[in-house]
Each structure stands twice: as C-alpha cells, then as structure tokens.
Specification:
single chain, metallopeptidase activity, elongated, 282 residues, alpha+beta, Muramoyl-pentapeptide Carboxypeptidase, domain 2, 40% helix, 2 domains, metalloprotease, membrane, D-Ala-D-Ala dipeptidase activity, zinc, 5-stranded mixed beta sheet
Length: 282
C-alpha cells in the first residue's frame, strides 16, 4: 500500500471516529434529557446518522481528489486539460534527423499531428481530376518547422491544421494554369508558384473530431467569397479566419488576400523552383 493510500485511509478513519463520537453524544442527550419523546428523537437520530455518513462519503471523495494531484515526491501535479492530452498522443520526430530530398522533407515523417488531405491527389478540386499520382506532403525543412510551431499553438486551442496542398511539382502548375478559367487565382508557370518551391501551404483548421471550422468558402473556390476581406462572411467565420491568419503570421507565414486558405513562408525567395515528381519520392 502506498504512502498516499495510507494517508487517505487514516484521514477517513479519523473522520468516522469523530462523527461517531458526535452521534453518541447526541443519542446520550436524547435519552437523558428527553425520555418522554424517545421514539421521535430516535427517528431524528437515524436521519442524523444518514447525514453523517453522507458527509463522510463526500469528505472521502474530496480527499481522494486532493491526494491524486500529489506525486510520489509530495509535489502537486495539475491535471492535464483535454487540449494537452490531445497534442501529447501523436508521434513526433526531430526534424533535423529526417531525410530530405533536395531540401524537401515529408511532414508526416516528422509530426503525425496534422490532418493531411491533399486535394489534387483526389478529384475533389476545381479541375475535377486526380492530378497527383501519389499523396505525399512535402515541404522545405524550415517551412515545415514553422508549420509545426503554428500547429502546436493551435493544439492549445483544441484545433489542428488540415493541409489541402503543400509542395506542388512545377509541371503540375502548368496543368492547373491551363485548366483554370480564371487565371487570377493561379500563379503563371513562367514565374512559378510558391508551392513549386515547397514554401507554401493551403490549409484550414479542424477541431478534435476532425470537423472543419466554418470558413468563408471551401477549398479552391475561385470567387470573391474566398477573399479575406469578403463582407458577406458570418461573425463565426470572421473569428475563425482571424484565428487562422494571426497564428500563421505570428509563426512566419504571409497570407494572401484573395485566397484565405493560402499561406506562404516569409523566406520563400531563398528557395528555387522544383520539379520533383511525387511518384519518385520513396
């Protein structure tokens, strides 16, 4: 039996003895001073005993609650919040120990605490075609570090980052640009995209049940509703978008006005365009 269990048991025994002593004095008082009303008083004594037992039970529960917050060294241990439990489960790996391919790292090999849903690896995008032959989330090493820091901050709020796109091979940029009706929302292949450098992400936020937070639009809605300044968004959408934007900017990303979901690493200029095919990444 541990030290704390002994303390709890001794505490409860002492409490019971005190209560029994009080009850004995009460019964003695009843019989000695009011002999003509014994029956009535005995009923009250039973009620009194019941209240005493309830009090002892509540005292025991409180004592367990108090001592459960004390570790083996007598130090107080605070109970973790649900958000802290939420972020302690995923597997994490030191980012500097992860292999890279021409400066790109696989985010899922570093930190599993993201929801990865690369839309261009499905037909759920504006082209209605599966563009990526393989769903692998690659980023520049330093960009990945910044994104992990941002995600850790969101975790404390009970949220996680959901990634719709990350590194995009250069050849894919031309495919998307040629298909797009409104070219305003896509970078011209002549100069390339920040995605082609592995220095940009398209993201949103999800809660602990992986439900997306309400935002102005879904992914790849190339209309004025996708603007961060769209006046028709609801108050909750404004709040969620401001949360997303403020944390990302705090951690070294630049937002884009006409696409609320797009964030670029502030150091993107130091990274060259890449054309590594995702199917070649092992």
């Amino acid at each position: 039996m541990g030290r704390h269990e002994k303390v709890i048991i001794n505490f409860c025994i002492a409490t019971i003895l005190i209560c029994l002593s009080i009850m004995s004095l009460y019964v003695y008082f009843v019989f000695e001073n009011e002999k003509n009303t014994n029956t009535f008083r005995l009923i009250e004594t039973d009620e009194f005993l019941g209240k005493i037992l309830i009090l002892v039970d509540e005292t025991y529960k409180k004592s367990v609650s108090v001592f459960s917050k004390i570790d083996n060294k007598g130090k107080r241990v605070e109970k973790q919040t649900s958000a802290n439990n939420y972020i302690s489960e995923p597997k994490k790996k030191k980012i500097d120990e992860v292999r890279d391919i021409k400066g790109l790292v696989n985010l899922e090999e570093i930190d599993s605490n993201f929801v990865i849903e690369l839309r261009y690896a499905t037909e759920e995008n504006f082209t209605r075609q599966k563009i990526y032959p393989k769903a692998v989330c690659m980023l520049r090493r330093e960009t990945a570090k910044k994104l992990i820091n941002a995600n850790n901050e969101f975790n404390k709020m009970g949220y996680r980052i959901k990634i719709w796109d990350a590194y995009r091979p250069y050849y894919v940029q031309k495919i998307l640009y040629d298909i797009a009706v409104d070219k305003e929302f896509l970078a011209n292949p002549v100069s390339g995209s920040k995605h082609n450098r592995g220095a940009a992400v398209d993201i949103t936020l999800v809660d602990e049940d992986e439900r997306e937070l309400s935002m102005p639009t879904g992914f790849d809605e190339f209309t004025n509703r996708a603007s961060q300044n769209y006046i028709g968004m609801s108050e909750i959408q404004k709040k969620n978008l401001e949360c997303l934007r403020s944390v990302m900017e705090k951690n070294g990303f630049i937002s884009v006005k006409n696409e609320w979901w797009h964030f670029t690493d502030s150091d993107w200029e130091k990274y060259p365009l890449l054309n590594i095919r995702l199917e070649d990444i092992k």
